[in-house]
Specification:
Layout lengths: L1 E6 L3 H8 L1 H6 L6 E4 L5 E4 L5 E6 L20 E6 L8 H8 L1
Length: 98
């Protein structure tokens, strides 16, 4: 699947992800960053989980689940795409995530 996360600016994230320190620390893992044609970032974390990062503004900030301390850069989780078999029990999957 793919988790879509909203950030205020993607350019700074891209620079940080492409930096030597990150690249050397995560060498040999699944970590990868690619820019999609529409300006989104496709990020694969070191364990293979895929994220689509999109730009948004402060009005999209979701305060649910906030932790004490400084706010994170991320504004919200916009959606979650789950790949399933053609004959999967979609109602059951929906109940699990509701």
């Amino acid at each position: 699947g793919v988790v879509t996360l909203v950030y205020p600016k993607l350019e700074a994230l891209l620079e940080r992800y492409k930096g030597r320190q990150v690249a050397s620390a995560l060498k040999g893992s699944h970590f990868d960053v690619n820019v999609e044609g529409n300006g989104c970032l496709l990020v694969t974390d070191p364990w293979g989980t895929r994220f689509r990062l999109v730009e948004g503004d402060e009005s999209e900030r979701d305060s649910r689940g906030c932790q004490p301390g400084d706010q994170s850069e991320g504004l919200a989780m916009k959606d979650l795409t789950i790949f399933v078999k053609k004959d999967a029990n979609l109602n059951g999957i929906g109940r699990f995530y509701s």
